[in-house]
Design a protein that fits this description.
The complex is a heterodimer. Chain A is mainly beta. In chain A, strands 2, 4, 5, 9, 10 and 11 form a 6-stranded mixed sheet that branches. In chain A, strands 1-3-8-7-6 form a 5-stranded antiparallel sheet, with no helix packed on it. In chain A, strand 9 and strand 10 form a beta hairpin. Chain A is globular, with a radius of gyration of 14 Å. Chain A starts with a strand and ends with a strand. By secondary structure, chain B is an all-beta fold. In chain B, strands 2, 4, 5, 6, 9, 10 and 11 form a 7-stranded mixed sheet that branches. Classes of the chains: A mainly beta, B mainly beta.
Amino acid sequence: GENVEQHPSTLSVQEGDSAVIKCTYSDSASNYFPWYKQELGKRPQLIIDIRSNVGEKKDQRIAVTLNKTAKHFSLHITETQPEDSAVYFCAAPGGGSTLGRLYFGRGTQLTVWP
Amino acid sequence: NAGVMQNPRHLVRRRGQEARLRCSPMKGHSHVYWYRQLPEEGLKFMVYLQKENIIDESGMPKERFSAEFPKEGPSILRIQQVVRGDSAAYFCASSPGQGLQETQYFGPGTRLLVL
């Protein structure tokens, strides 16, 4: 099955700085890569996703880049705000018999200091 | 358009009891997924269902755990004879069921505590 590694596990930045979270995956059949934000005690919320036909996607202060050759994808948050503080998870789908499920990274606790 | 609904939001059971967790997918969605999240960990896949059909249950323990998604009504995740190690947050997600590798939208979760 797919193996998703996520780094760093914790990230602290000053308000206004940028934050970058990186993930690698193992299954070359994966072609959809979502990012979820989870606040304490809440549901994972999709914030951005990318499919393998593009290398980058941007939505206001959030962007995701994908390198299919190297099998890694990254989340970039610019001009961070305290309300960006949460746990962020990357994910990748399985292929073959595991098609349908998502494999999640272990998460990155982002703290934005005012 | 209501999102994915789960109930109960919190469930307390004593060891040996049964836990039933319910999930109603988003309107128009026919695929349901169940994930388990332990404290300070990522989500782990358990089972993937369509209406009246289990597509992939390889992430679910073979004993004590079962899942269904009937033609009418919510999807149910059932845990029999719960043990302390079953304490976790259980999240359900749904997708439209119109293609491969679809976006999954999550419910608010059920937090199960086994005493």
